[in-house]
Every structure is written in structure tokens, then in C-alpha cells.
Amino acid sequence: MQTLKLGASGSDVVKLQKRLLELGLNPGSADGKFGPKTEASLKQFQTNQKFLANGIAGPETLAALFPGEPLGSSLLSYRAIELILEFEVGGGRKYYQKLLQRPTWPEGASGITIGIGYDLGYNTVEVFNQDWQKLGDVERKRLSECCELTGEAANNLLDSVRDIIVAWELAWDVFNIVTVPKFYNQTKAAFPGLEELPADVQGGLVSLVFNRGPSMEGNRRREMRAIRDLVPKKDIKGIAAQIREMKRIWVGTSIEKGIGRRRDAEADLIQASS
Fold first, then answer.
1. Per-residue pLDDT for 74 more than 60?
2. Burial degree of 169 (CB within 10 A; 0-12, 13-18, 19+)
3. Region 11-66: CATH code
4. Which of 23, 37, 149, 263 has the most CB atoms lying inside 10 A of its own CB?
5. What is the DSSP annotation of 40-89?
């Protein structure tokens, strides 16, 4: 299910309307037509949740309406998408439009990042151009200069592209159509047996790989190797414990607090499935 708003129609709207009816709201009949009554009902739900009451069923609202169910690409649960959005763009559209619609450099070994966690430093020009076809030609050409550059080399180019704006709608499309499937496949390859685990466990592990990559080499990756062994055993508590143990890597660094929060959030999501 993707973003729904006034004028939308189809089976996803029927599902939305039925859910609103279940919650005691009044979207009208479940006829699959997103009209004024459905919009007003959705705004009331958003107000109750203390969300921005814009009448649009976007990622944050859908996550609250259908916790634990697939979102977008149908590969991850709503809760997993919500977690990734929280740590990549502060939770959703509002924060993104305020602070993150321009390119950023997240420091460390990162490259210049656009959209929802799309790191140009870890993508070739060819892949970037394919993924961002809907971005303007001029903007795409300028950003392509940042591809495959990380660390200070990327930071040195940030000022040259900071004026480029990537709209939320485009960022969400690329995240949903390109990024989620890409990292789901990487996670599946890193942790054989992933598909046999509950959706929230899969999502927590995808968030981990999204943030750290799938590598298994070296002492900094010993918990990744332990998780790889635990996944076929469906040892959910053990997987969560290894993710928390991973926090040792960033002790004393400038990102210790933020990364620690993300590891705990991933572990909490996973452990709640056990």
C-alpha cells in the first residue's frame, strides 16, 4: 500500500476505509473511493494520534493504522519502515522537508546522501542515474560528480550541491521502489533463512544492513557473523542480544548515542516478535 489521498481509488482505499470503520470513525461506505468523508475521517485519526492532520495516508499514518503489516514494496512491515524512516529522516515528510531535502554528509565514511538514506558514495554513476531517472537532468549530472566518493572527499563536494532540492515524493518513490528491495536482497544474502522469520525481525535486520552494510569480515563484524548463525535457528532473542552487543563498536565516538539508539530500536522491534 502506498500513499493515499483525496481522489485515490481502488482496493487499497477499501482497506483504508474498512480500517477507519473498525476504529469507530466515519469514512462513509467502503466503496474504494477516497472522497471528502474519508479525508475527514483520516484527519480525525491523525489528530487523535497527534500527527499532522493533512488527510493524506502516508508512511507515518499507515504505520499507525496497520502496525505489523507490509508497506510499499510489501517486503517490510510498517513498524520496520517507521524505524528506518525515524533514523534516516527523523520520522517522515515534515522533518525531511524542514532539514533533509537538500544533500547532506552524515560524517565518517559516508558519502553525500540524498533522499531517504541514499548514499551516493556507495553507488556508481550508472546506478545513480538509473535509480533517479525522475530527477532533473541538470541536478542529476551535478550529483553524479559525488558518486563513489566517501569521507572527506565527499564532504569537500557538499557545498557544490547543497542548493539542490530532492522533493519528498521523489525521495519516497526511490526508497520504496529501489532502496527497500536492494537492502532486503542484501540482508537475505547476508543472513540465509531470513524469509522464514517474522516480518518485524526481517525489518530489524534490514535496518541493520541499511546502516552497516552486509560485510562479515573482521572483529567489528563478529556480531554479524553470530547473527548469521542464529537466523536459521530462528533464535529471535539471540539475534536481538547480538544487535545490542554491537554497540561496543561505537563506545567513545561522536555517534555513540545515535547509533546506540538505533541498535536498541532494532533489537526492541525484533524481540517484540518472540
1. no
2. exposed
3. 1.10.101.10
4. 263
5. HHHHHHHHHTTS---S-B-HHHHHHHSTTSEETTTTEEHHHHHHHHHHHH
